[in-house]
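Hi support team,

I've been running sequence recovery on a batch of backbones for a student project. Most finish fine, but this one hangs at about 90% for roughly twenty minutes before it completes. I'm not sure whether the input is malformed or the queue is just slow. I've pasted the structure tokens below so you can try to reproduce it. Let me know if you need the job ID as well.

Thanks,
M.K.
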């Protein structure tokens, strides 16, 4: 693992060009006396090349480059910290214009280049094993800040490589910020104003907000839905996922079934395995019964330890047995490999460590201690 790269921590004053809509950017180009087709060139830089500044955009006239530099920034965020793990996982802490930090992770797996994006600073859901919600939610991210994470991650890839998949599994409750998320994902998937990614390669993970799941289903999009279940019974889910007390497991399952009916897309159920808490054979049997007959896919996620929380990772043998038991009910089950553990690549962990260690100081974090 490398040392973190200290980076610029100055606050951002100018507007982010790559976060501007095509209409905004074209209106500005017209106002400064340049042709609309310049936007195509700028987008080429934004989405397919690796510009560090407007000065890099040498196919634009010098006058335009200077005007751009005077009025715009490239990105909506700045890289406050970058950590690289041995397995190639890159974790970015991105500083928003108001000084708040968000996490974004780039993972390489075979030909896949997956970016895990955040939707909020903090989280209001309060899942008891998760670092993101320990201090509640500060605010939702704008569409530009959400889209920016994908662009910033893309900058880390060698020229010629592109982000191939997106998982909305970073900090925050994705569907609590659905409107902005949809704008950001539309840009990611737009062949003209974005990366042209297939909607089928985008997964949105949610704690399970039924009304929002249905709203997402009505969007006529092909996004994959992942529901963070974590428990097969009301009682246990109430303990692990406190918002369940108001929502209820049955309502979550009904909304997920509706999503499948509306989109034809098989729903993934995420299940964080907490040693001794929800990884016992009886939990596996109950989960198998719950999902039996549904077009479902279970993703078991061995708990990633969070400092100060009382949970432990499950024993590998328990994970295998759990998987086999659920599979016996005819349900597809995969176990998520832990990536980037040494760089705190689980929801909210990097930001938490960074902010408690640095508390306003420069980006000096003993991240591999
Ligand atoms: N709020 C959304 C998306 C963010 S969390 C949701 O609840 O799905 C993305 C996934 O990571 C969720 O399944 C979440 O429960 C899981 N997760 C959170 N903290 C974790 C930890 N410490 N170890 C393993 N998985 C964790």
């Amino acid at each position: 693992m490398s040392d973190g790269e200290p980076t610029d921590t100055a606050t951002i004053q100018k507007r982010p060009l790559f976060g501007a809509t095509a209409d905004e950017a074209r209106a500005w180009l017209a106002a400064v006396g340049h042709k609309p087709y310049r936007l195509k060139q700028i987008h080429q830089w934004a989405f397919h090349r690796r510009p560090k500044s407007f000065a890099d955009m040498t196919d634009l006239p010098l006058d335009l480059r200077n005007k751009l530099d005077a009025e715009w920034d490239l990105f909506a965020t700045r890289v406050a910290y970058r950590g690289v793990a041995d397995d190639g996982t890159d974790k970015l802490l991105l500083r928003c214009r108001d000084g708040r930090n968000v996490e974004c992770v780039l993972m390489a797996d075979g030909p896949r280049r997956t970016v895990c994006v955040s939707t909020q600073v903090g989280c209001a859901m309060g899942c008891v094993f998760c670092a993101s919600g320990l201090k509640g939610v500060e605010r939702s991210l704008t569409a530009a800040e959400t889209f920016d994470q994908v662009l910033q991650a893309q900058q880390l890839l060698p020229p010629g490589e592109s982000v191939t998949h997106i998982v909305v599994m970073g900090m925050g409750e994705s569907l609590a910020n659905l409107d902005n998320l949809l704008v950001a994902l539309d840009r990611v998937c737009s062949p003209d104003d974005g990366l042209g990614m297939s909607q089928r390669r985008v997964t949105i993970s949610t704690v399970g907000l039924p009304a929002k799941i249905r709203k997402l289903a009505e969007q006529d999009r092909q996004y994959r839905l992942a529901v963070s279940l974590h428990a097969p019974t009301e009682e246990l889910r109430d303990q692990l996922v406190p918002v369940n007390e108001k929502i209820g497991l049955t309502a979550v399952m009904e909304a997920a079934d509706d999503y499948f009916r509306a989109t034809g897309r098989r729903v993934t159920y995420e299940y964080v395995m907490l040693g001794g808490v929800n990884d016992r054979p009886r939990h596996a049997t109950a989960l198998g019964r719950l999902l039996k007959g549904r077009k479902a896919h279970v993703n078991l996620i061995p708990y990633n330890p969070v400092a100060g929380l009382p949970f432990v990772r499950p024993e590998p043998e328990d994970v295998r047995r759990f998987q086999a038991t659920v599979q016996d009910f005819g349900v597809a089950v995969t176990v998520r490999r832990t990536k980037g553990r040494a760089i705190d690549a689980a929801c909210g962990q990097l930001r938490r460590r960074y902010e408690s260690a640095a508390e306003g100081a420069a980006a000096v974090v003993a991240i591999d201690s």
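--
Follow-up from support: It reproduced on our side and the slowdown came from queue contention, not your input. The first helix runs from residue 22 to 31. No action needed from you.
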